[in-house]
Write a structure and sequence with these properties.
single chain, three-stranded parallel beta sheet, P-loop_NTPase, 127 residues
């Protein structure tokens, strides 16, 4: 499950996104409890890797996703969070050491982009 978490995320919208990614159906409920239950049912017993990408607030896990997911996901499931701020990682009580990613040098970024472009062009030519 891959969730992009915006800087000014909405709890309800984040839950709805998680429901969709998990294969469930959105709800129009105004309370947090209903989407939490739907998400819990959608993932119940499934093993998953949850990636929360670009997290700006540590409460995204403890305050929103932990309740419906922690006891519903199968044993062996994992959570991976990316953030730009060490304080966010600390706030989630993530295990240390944290992996710090450095920016690519411009020539490495261009090289990576060119490789991806070639793959896309090859797919178009062979399709």
């Amino acid at each position: 499950m891959w969730l992009c978490v915006n800087k000014d995320f909405s709890e309800t919208e984040l839950l709805m996104s998680a429901i969709e990614v998990a294969g469930g159906h959105r709800t129009t409920a105004n309370t947090k409890a209903v989407p939490e239950q739907i998400l819990k049912e959608a993932v119940k017993g499934h093993k998953a890797l949850l990636v929360m990408d670009d997290v700006w607030d540590h409460r995204v896990w403890e305050g929103v996703l932990q309740t419906p997911l922690a006891n519903a996901l199968a044993r062996g499931s994992s959570v991976l969070m990316t953030t730009r701020h060490t304080t966010v990682a600390r706030g989630t009580k993530a295990e240390e050491p944290y992996h710090h990613v450095q920016k690519l040098r411009p020539e490495d970024a261009w090289s990576l982009l060119k490789k991806q472009e070639m793959k896309i062009l090859n797919l178009r030519l062979t399709s």
